[in-house]
Design brief:
In chain A, helix 10 crosses helix 11 and helix 15 packs parallel to helix 16 (about 535-560). Chain A is of the alpha+beta class and about 750 residues long. Chain A is built from 20 helices and 28 strands. The chains are: A alpha+beta (about 750), B alpha+beta (about 270). At the A-B interface, helix 4 and helix 20 of A face helix 12 of B.
Chain lengths: ~750, ~270
């Protein structure tokens, strides 16, 4: 016992760090051909003609395919992501008559080598007849131009207000328009996939194997089966090591779902690996909201009413991004008890990359809106925004707490998180330094930003497959095998699940093998996202191991001729409490067990999502002459319930803080008015490096959830939720003496300088 | 990110490289560290038919004290410029600026000659050597000639080098104890400068050049002229953009670039005068 809570090193890392990991682009697939796509170079246009004659004659070219070819076989349309999306809008796997964003795949070129395919792609001539382009989501909302006339409007998802917020009792009401900018998820490994049809089995059925860097084998398999009319058992999806996903790899894309057709057509494996620029302009984007906030309360700081109206950019094709406001809505009031609230949202189509889930997916947007609003309200009544937060956060004794929008928060210590973060950062000293610099008229000003946040993890609740089997290994030693439905893409599931199993079974972490990401091994699985894996998948590994131990104790009791209630297990040895000298070990139990007796499946399903929370404090220095912001420190209190492995948790927090602070200061997908992407690589897109960040300070706080055996909530996204508003607030705070109340994200030097020059005239 | 097909030949000496370039005509390009050319080729913005690899020409990587100036071989890598004790003593501004090029990987591969020959107005070393009054030695089929840095940059990514000429040496006058400053304003450590300033000052003399403030690196002669006539640093810095023609991009408007140039020139001169 006792490994829970230990800083166990990641068992994944030795292989990954020494090049022994298996990424799909490194898979040896004998005979595989390569597909490269001709992509739209215009944002919105009718396709007049496609001339692929020269491309077909290029060296190594095996085939050039358009929508018409795929459609002729009956596979022209991609399944919709969600049943609530409009049925009138069905996406063709390759652009059919109209292209709708720059980067959209139009023609598939298959060749012996990637280089040959790239060469041939350059020789395909697509003639376009331009159509009006919509880049601005608010312009799209007005329906002046309608992108799908047959649907009649650009609004694909609408959340109407339940009731209006009542501001009548408020002394002070602030209003603002806030941009939560479009971001590119930017995983280190871009989209990669491969498909291979296998030789016919005894019944003449050809199965096919599909490899995809994704966040869930079964969730990728289902649309493939739907599109091609195949039974699930005919399709094997394998997910080897994945180099990051951040939500964007939770979905199929046309580029990968076409591979089974291409592989069949060419009767050989076909593989796809995109370039960074293709990834920046093709992998789904995240965030992309314009928010109208209105917040009112009393002059002594009590918040009374809040309304949030969201315009969500869903991009050219409605996908998961169109539903982000649903998640934004659930914690729209943040950590505060606000009695009167309204929320409305419209998700609209534009001629840009479709939006999807990106780390936090709807929750960072909610936190950014309410936190900005609280800052503005505090400035208006002349109170420290920290004090406004303290007055309004939900008290710990009120959990479970149902917020005004109907969401029930499970547990939390919101005021304590604020106190801890202020203590850790020495808030009074920071304010004193700020005052000194202002008094001295320094060029470089200090800013302090504090954010209080709550978010939802495992939002869809439910379960996740997890089984544990204790058996004799090939070497004769006792081993356990965990099969999990979770799909790691960097989190460290193998380490974490091995810890859970080891702890219960009394085995060592290195005795546990964790299997995942293969539909022939894992019976079923969900998408690994929304920070659900530990609570759902982990709890089921924990429960399965517990069941196996219970059965082993039965066997041990029989062997020891003792009452099972008296048998305990310690360090893999079973004995009667008080007489450790007489014992049985796992080998003896394995020898005495019935087949499958030492194998169990966890039966846990969680009733609801859990609500991690915390407080972040950012300190920035702002050069008032140039607008440059330097992040001096970032202190994070993240309460994700009970922590299984602090090392893994900190890894998640650090990565999240970087991405959160990057949204505040660096990252923004930019399109010009014609819909041309201007941020198609890491030189133009503000993807930061370690040089731009200080070392982070993380502070421990645990409010276990009552909703699962482990008391665990998710921690994958908290960094991106708390850090963005904290850093943005710090930048604005540094300039508040100039009368500056708001600067939109990202607080780039240019935006900061423009705010300063606007304020000082 | 796969370049178009090209032929590849390797030169053992400068003379051989020039001869090879001559044979292959105007579609041929020299390949040194590759950190400017290869990205353009991978994006297929450049599609040379032949690359003449000069990376193994051994006698062009050196930093020598040549009396009144320091002679730097064109194939000297940025990291060697940055760490050079000779430059630390005689041209610390250049060594310091080289330490701000790209990131450590770029600095271990990229060369000073490649950076200058590429003539990117957003690069650090063209402007820095311009501020220092450097002279570039180029070799062609008819022998060698010297080109002043102030005559070298003729347009965007365009220099006075003929297609069959190769930059072989950079001659940087000794700074003789001049005060100096390099101001690189960017968002991320490895970025190109949004605006950069290289400046030195000694008694009445000065040299100030701007990074990313026009189609070429820009010598801010008006600033030096004003200082020579006794203007204050603040007043001289107001003339920072007299010779510049900044353009707008994602990071900066023309107005912001202009403002930054004035602030950075003032800061550079203050530091160089301290």
């Amino acid at each position: 016992m006792g490994i829970i809570g230990e800083r166990v090193l990641r068992t994944e890392d030795p292989d990954l760090l020494t090049g022994k990991g298996t990424y799909i682009d490194n898979l040896d697939l004998p005979g595989a051909a390569h597909v490269v796509y001709v992509r739209s170079t215009v944002a919105h246009a009718r396709i007049v003609s496609i001339d692929a004659d020269e491309a077909r004659t290029m060296p190594g070219v095996l085939g050039v395919h358009t929508f018409a070819d795929v459609d002729a076989d009956g596979y022209g349309l991609v399944p919709n992501d969600h049943p609530m999306l409009p049925a009138q809008i069905r996406r063709p796997v390759l652009a059919s008559d109209v292209v709708r964003y720059v980067g959209e795949p139009v023609v598939a070129v298959v060749a012996e080598t990637r280089a040959q395919a790239v060469d041939a792609v350059e020789r395909v001539i697509v003639d376009y007849d331009p159509l009006p382009v919509l880049v601005d989501m608010e312009e799209a909302k007005s329906d002046g131009v309608v992108l799908f006339p047959e649907f009649g409007t650009n609004t694909v998802v609408k959340i109407p207000s339940g009731r209006e917020a009542d501001f009548s009792a408020c002394d002070v009401v602030i209003e603002a328009r806030i941009v939560n900018q479009r971001l590119a998820p930017s995983p280190l490994e871009p989209r990669v996939a491969a498909s291979r049809w296998e030789a016919p089995d005894a019944n003449g059925v050809r199965r096919f194997t599909h490899w995809q860097a994704c966040q869930g084998a079964h969730s990728v398999r289902a649309p493939i089966c739907e599109m091609y009319g195949l039974p699930p058992e005919q399709v094997r999806v394998i997910v080897p090591d994945v180099g990051g996903g951040f939500g964007a790899k939770a979905f199929n894309y046309p580029e990968d779902i076409l591979l089974p057709w291409l592989a069949k057509k060419h009767d050989r494996p076909v593989r796809y690996t995109e370039t960074r620029t293709e990834s920046m302009n093709g992998l789904g984007h995240g965030r992309a909201q314009v928010q109208y906030v209105k917040l009112g309360g009393t002059r002594d700081g009590r918040l009374l009413a809040y309304s949030l109206d969201v315009v969500q950019d869903s991009g050219a094709w409605p996908r998961f991004g169109a539903f982000l406001p649903v998640l934004t809505r659930r914690m729209a009031t943040g950590t505060y008890d606000i009695p009167s609230v309204s929320f409305t949202a419209s998700s609209v189509l534009t001629n840009t990359v479709p939006t999807i889930a990106y780390r936090g997916a709807g929750r960072p947007e909610a936190a950014a809106a309410i936190e900005r609003a609280v800052d503005l309200f505090a400035a208006e009544i002349g109170m420290d925004a920290v004090d406004v937060r303290r007055i309004n956060v939900i008290a710990p004794e009120r959990f479970p707490f149902k917020n005004t929008l109907g969401t029930t928060y499970d547990s939390g210590q919101y005021a304590k998180a604020i106190d801890l973060v202020l203590d850790a950062a020495d808030y009074p000293a920071l304010r004193a330094e700020q005052a000194r610099r202002r008094a001295a008229g320094d060029t470089v000003m200090l800013g302090i930003g504090v954010c209080s946040y709550v978010e939802i993890t495992a939002a869809s609740a439910g379960g996740e497959y997890g089984s544990v089997t204790v058996h004799e290994g090939d070497d004769g030693a006792v081993r356990a095998t965990v099969v999990t439905g979770t799909t790691p893409y960097g989190q460290g599931h193998r380490t974490a699940w091995a810890m859970l199993a080891a702890d219960r079974l009394g085995l060592r972490v290195e005795d546990i093998t964790v299997l995942h990401g293969d539909t022939d091994i894992v019976p079923h699985s969900e998408v690994s996202g929304a920070s659900r894996s530990l609570q759902l998948g982990g709890t089921n590994v924990w429960r399965a191991a517990g069941t196996v131990v219970d059965r082993a104790r039965d066997i041990a009791a029989r062997l020891l001729e003792a009452d099972v209630a008296d048998v305990i297990v310690a360090d893999g040895v079973f004995h009667v409490a008080g007489t450790p000298a007489v014992s049985v070990n796992w080998s003896q139990i394995i020898d005495s067990a019935e087949p499958d007796q030492l194998s169990a499946i966890g039966d846990f399903a969680q009733a609801d999502g859990t609500f991690p929370s915390g407080a972040h404090l950012a300190v920035v220095e702002v050069d008032t002459e140039t607008g440059k912001v330097v992040l001096r420190s970032l202190v994070a209190v993240d309460d994700a319930g009970r922590i299984l492995n602090p090392l893994l948790a900190e890894g998640q927090v650090h990565g999240g803080l970087v991405q959160g602070a990057a949204q505040a200061l660096f990252e923004e997908v930019v399109y010009d008015p014609d819909g041309n992407p201007l941020t198609g690589n890491f030189a133009d897109y503000g993807f930061p490096s370690a040089a731009e960040f200080p070392s982070f300070v993380t502070v421990h706080l645990e409010s276990p959830t009552p909703l699962n055996d482990l008391g665990a909530k998710g921690i994958g996204e908290s960094g991106t939720i708390g850090a963005t508003p904290a850093v943005q607030s710090a930048v604005i705070d540094a300039l508040s003496h100039l009368g500056i109340r708001h600067i939109d994200l990202p607080c780039s030097p240019r935006r900061v300088w423009e705010a300063i020059s606007g304020a000082v005239g | 990110m796969i370049p178009a097909a090209f032929d590849y030949v390797r030169a053992g000496s400068a003379a051989e490289a020039i001869s090879l370039i001559g044979q292959h005509g105007s579609d041929a390009k020299f390949l040194a560290g590759g950190h400017s050319l290869l990205p353009l080729m991978k994006l297929r913005l450049a599609q040379p038919s032949v690359l003449v690899d000069i990376g193994r020409v051994k006698d062009l990587s050196y930093i020598k004290d040549a009396g009144d100036h320091i002679a730097i071989g064109a194939l000297t890598r940025h990291m060697d410029v940055e760490k050079s004790s000779v430059l630390a003593q005689h041209a610390p501004l250049l060594a310091h600026a080289a330490g701000h090029v790209g990131d450590p990987q770029v600095r271990h591969r990229g060369t000073i000659g490649g950076s200058i020959a590429h003539a990117d107005p957003a690069s650090d070393l063209p402007a820095t050597t311009l501020a220092l009054g450097a002279t570039y030695v180029v070799q062609g089929p008819k022998g060698t000639r010297e080109i002043k840095a102030s005559d070298f940059y003729v347009g965007f990514l365009e220099s006075a080098l003929a297609p069959d000429e190769m930059l072989t040496e950079i001659r940087v006058p000794k700074m003789n104890g001049a005060g100096w400053s390099f101001q690189k304003f960017n968002r991320r450590a490895q970025d190109w400068a949004i605006v950069g300033v290289a400046a030195w000052r000694r008694n009445g003399d000065s040299g100030v050049a701007l990074v990313n403030m026009g189609q070429t690196p820009v010598l801010a002669s008006s600033v030096s002229g004003a200082l020579k006539s006794g203007a204050s640093i603040a007043d001289a810095a107001e003339l920072a953009v007299a010779e510049a023609s900044p353009s707008a991009d994602n990071n900066a408007s023309v107005e912001y670039r202009t403002h930054l140039a004035k602030v950075l020139v003032r800061r550079a001169l203050e530091q160089a005068s301290a």
